[in-house]
């Protein structure tokens, strides 16, 4: 089990948007969709671009890279569209007493 890190309050995350945090020296995009929260590595595997600056595809549970349009599954980190072919890391997330906590390896 990794280190648990509190990043923000749930109420600070608007549904359908991504926010960038640096956690343990690592950039992480945190996305809230209704009552679910996801955490994904905030660097596109195709080209080093912040995914948190991209569009959240709510129904698909994907985050789009703003540079070339690749989308990444928020649950698995797998790319869903080209040009990205390599996955990005995902991190376990929990909400504890209204605070969003990530588990880092």
UniProtKB/TrEMBL annotation:
<dbReference type="Pfam" id="PF00355">
    <property type="entry name" value="Rieske"/>
</dbReference>
<keyword id="KW-0479">Metal-binding</keyword>
<protein>
    <submittedName>
        <fullName>Non-heme iron oxygenase ferredoxin subunit</fullName>
    </submittedName>
</protein>
<keyword id="KW-0408">Iron</keyword>
<keyword id="KW-0411">Iron-sulfur</keyword>
<dbReference type="InterPro" id="IPR017941">
    <property type="entry name" value="Rieske_2Fe-2S"/>
</dbReference>
<feature type="domain" description="Rieske">
    <location>
        <begin position="5"/>
        <end position="102"/>
    </location>
</feature>
<keyword id="KW-0001">2Fe-2S</keyword>
<dbReference type="InterPro" id="IPR036922">
    <property type="entry name" value="Rieske_2Fe-2S_sf"/>
</dbReference>
């Amino acid at each position: 089990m990794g280190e648990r890190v509190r990043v923000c309050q749930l109420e600070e995350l608007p549904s359908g948007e991504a926010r960038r945090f640096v956690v343990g020296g690592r950039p992480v995009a945190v996305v809230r969709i209704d009552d679910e929260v996801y955490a994904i590595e905030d660097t596109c595997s195709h080209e080093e671009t912040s995914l948190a600056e991209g569009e959240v595809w709510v129904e698909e549970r994907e985050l789009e890279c703003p540079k070339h349009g690749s989308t990444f599954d928020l649950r698995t980190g797998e790319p869903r569209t080209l040009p990205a072919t390599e996955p990005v890391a995902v991190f376990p997330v929990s909400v504890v007493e209204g605070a969003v906590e990530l588990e880092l390896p």
